[in-house]
Amino acid sequence: MRDDDTIVALSSGALPSGVAVVRLSGPKAGVVLSGMLGALPVPRRLKLADIRIGGDLIDRGLVAWMPGPHSFTGEDCAELQVHGSPAVVRALLRQLGAMDGVRLAEAGEFTRRAFENGKLDLTEVEGLGDLIQAETEGQRRLALARLDGALSERLDAWREALLDARAEIEARLDFSDEGDVDAELPETVLSRLREVRADLLAVAGSITSGRIVREGLRVALAGPPNAGKSSLLNALAKSDVAIVTDEPGTTRDVREVAVDLDGQLVILVDMAGLRQSDSKAEAEGVRRAHREIGGADLVLWLQAPDVEVGPAPATEADVWIVGSKSDLPGVAGELAVSSRTGAGVDELLARIARFADGQTSGEPALVSRERDLVALSAAVSSVEAAIAHFGEEELAAEDLRRASDALARLLGKMDVEAVLDRLFSAFCIGK
Ligand SMILES: Nc1nc2c(ncn2[C@@H]2O[C@H](COP(=O)(O)OP(=O)(O)OP(=O)(O)O)[C@@H](O)[C@H]2O)c(=O)[nH]1
Ligand SMILES: [Mg+2]
């Protein structure tokens, strides 16, 4: 496999479909296209054309020619909109892929080329990957902001401020014996560093909101065995996904169901009831339940009138006491629900939706991944070290270099290979 091959792939979805888009990128794209059409069309204009390979008419469709560098990948690109028939697409891919210097693309290879040609930085590539995967409104907005460079712009601005500060400091190292550089660093450098630090912290602080939008709000359905957790999961998800019996200890595995509540992804998590158990499988289930409760953004603690009430688990997340089986006598309170009659279920869903909204309201978060947090935290520590080393130029300059490097890594300007392979393998072929 070579990076200067011309690549081809089906970029649209499953066949058959009304229209299929076949995409070409690389140095041979122009020759291949003019060979099929007889001549190259006007760049960046759709043209209705007969698409022929070796004189054989494959289909008639709309064709776009996008010569580099002003194309998605930065290379010469062509797109063929043909009828979305398996036979048409197979014929095109087979015959194009057999041409000299042309081969089928690997997953994410178009985007990889865009990254390598400087069309997108790494955060924008991630935004694109997230946008393609987005299922909720919140995810779409978050991903689009990232793809649009909302984070990149901030990272560039911080990097520039850090570079300026470093230049000021290094000027004193290199030219301290020359008359035209003041020996003392101006106070403005220090105050600028403090601003960058505060900014970095503020953006890093939006990680929880970003993560909740991107990965979903995790809601743990917890309580003693038989409290009605699995029944409530089924009622909230409006689907019969979890096994329900009157035997305490029915659920052992963790089961997640994703629901879209008003554009916000919510992950409902059913689990084993909390109790001491001699059964190895159940004890393991209880251990996993504790882990889920620890990782949840919201815990629903179920109390049923026919089950002995246990103490709510200690966790940093919000815990709501839910009175389950409200069709039985003895259940009261704001959060009374009956999975049997459906009473209170929609109210509970609405409350969860409001809670999710409260966690993610406002501007789309700039950061949402673990990688973001690692980079921003490293940058904050290094900027703090530089502030502490103010007056010790060599140390401060080194701290600032580290801070810029952390941000450069996030943009994919350094140490990028390990991240890339993982990232692009998650892309689909044709993107
Ligand atoms: N009357 C009534 N019974 C319910 C309701 N929800 C659940 N039950 C009954 O309570 C019993 C336990 O329900 P599950 O949903 O399996 O409870 P669980 O908390 O998942 O139990 P484990 O998986 O064993 O921890 C079953 O017999 C259900 O039919 C309800 O809203 N009303
Ligand atoms: Mg259960």
Question: In words, what does this structure look like?
Answer:
This protein is an alpha/beta fold and 431 residues long. It has three domains: 6-119, Probable tRNA modification gtpase trme, domain 1 (Gyrase A, domain 2, 2-Layer Sandwich), CATH 3.30.1360; 124-206 and 367-412, Up-down Bundle (Four Helix Bundle (Hemerythrin (Met), subunit A)); 213-360, P-loop containing nucleotide triphosphate hydrolases (Rossmann fold). The protein contains 14 helices and eleven strands. The strands form two sheets. A six-stranded mixed β-sheet has the order 3-4-5-2-1-6. A five-stranded mixed β-sheet has the order 8-9-7-10-11, with helices on both faces. Helix 4 packs antiparallel against helix 5 and helix 7 runs antiparallel to helix 12. The structure holds guanosine-5'-triphosphate and magnesium ion. Guanosine-5'-triphosphate binds at residues 223, 225-231, 244-246, 248-251, 272-273, 324-325, 327-328, 338-340.
